[in-house]
Write a structure and sequence with these properties.
The protein is an alpha+beta fold. It is built from 7 helices and 5 strands; from the N terminus they run ααααααβββββα. The chain has a 5-stranded antiparallel β-sheet with strand order 4-3-2-1-5. Helix 1 (5-32) crosses helix 2.
Length: 284
């Protein structure tokens, strides 16, 4: 039985969103200091996280569209000018004509590799920048301009590099050493598709987290208001206001959601006057 083409494309997009969502969640928890152990490979929330990555990234591209257009336009204009000059200076010696002939493709080659390489480097720097020290660093995207700006720059460079790579495949004569250049650029582009979602997860954290009460054996968690950072079928990750706690899902008998609030040293609902009293008031 032949699978309809539209269905196969939809399945491919779903798989891509799922993989991107996994990278987003993994990098987000890494930035918060959560080890890799609690993160399962299979979880339906990855599709939602992958979709969020695409939507927010498109919004950022729309905001930074002038930068993207300017980058591509400068490279295209440079290549066009070199092409025009090369056609006019036909009277130069043969050695110079060879140099001229390679100058345009050399510019495009440098631009292509620089765009993709810089995007990978910036994204990797964001992911490897360490823990956010939960309450002491801004959680919302709008409140963290250094990470947000770095991610936006990496995203613009990655998209510009992919556009140049597509043009290079369509017209190999535009780049120097076509096979080698396109092979290296393809590897960088594939790496960027993995690292850029991770940079998104590390740079753009949720603005607020659920404040919950967990019925669990841990004394510093049981019966107290804590932030729910992550939950799977195996593990529950909560933040007490000073440390992260990993609780086995089997030990967490019940989780009561009280409200949502920004991360703070004293977990509690806004306007309740304190973490413990807020939890008690809601519980009653």
């Amino acid at each position: 039985m032949r699978v309809p083409e539209g269905l196969s494309k939809a399945a491919g997009y779903a798989v891509l969103l799922y993989v991107w969502g996994f990278f987003v969640v993994r990098a987000r928890l890494h930035a918060l200091g959560v080890p890799a152990g609690p993160v399962p490979v299979v979880d339906q929330s990855y599709l939602i996280q992958g979709g969020g990555f695409v939507v927010v990234s498109l919004e950022l591209l729309a905001r930074n569209l002038p930068i993207l257009v300017t980058f591509v336009a400068i490279v295209a204009a440079g290549a066009y000018c070199i092409h025009r000059v090369r056609r006019r200076l036909t009277s130069l010696p043969a050695a110079y004509r060879t140099w001229k002939r390679e100058l345009g493709p050399l510019v495009l080659t440098i631009a292509l590799l620089a765009a993709l390489g810089t995007a990978v480097a910036v994204s990797n720097a964001i992911v490897s920048s360490g823990s956010l020290l939960l309450p002491f660093q801004p959680a919302a995207f709008s409140d963290s301009p250094p990470r947000a700006t770095s991610y936006a720059g990496a995203l613009v460079l990655a998209v510009a590099g992919v556009l140049l790579l597509a043009e290079g495949f369509r017209t190999p004569a535009l780049v120097v050493w076509p096979r080698l250049t396109l092979a290296v650029a393809t590897c960088l582009a594939v790496l960027a598709t993995c690292v850029v979602p991770m940079a998104f997860g590390a740079a753009i954290q949720p603005a607020s987290y659920p404040v919950v009460r967990v019925d669990a054996p841990e004394q510093d968690v049981s019966g107290k208001s804590v932030f729910l950072v992550f939950a799977t079928e195996r593990e529950v990750v909560v933040y007490t206001g000073s440390v992260l706690r990993l609780i086995s899902a089997e030990k967490a008998k019940a989780i009561d959601v009280l409200c949502e609030a920004r991360l703070a040293t004293e977990p509690g609902c806004p306007g309740a006057g304190g973490g413990g009293s807020a939890g008690a008031a809601v519980a009653r």
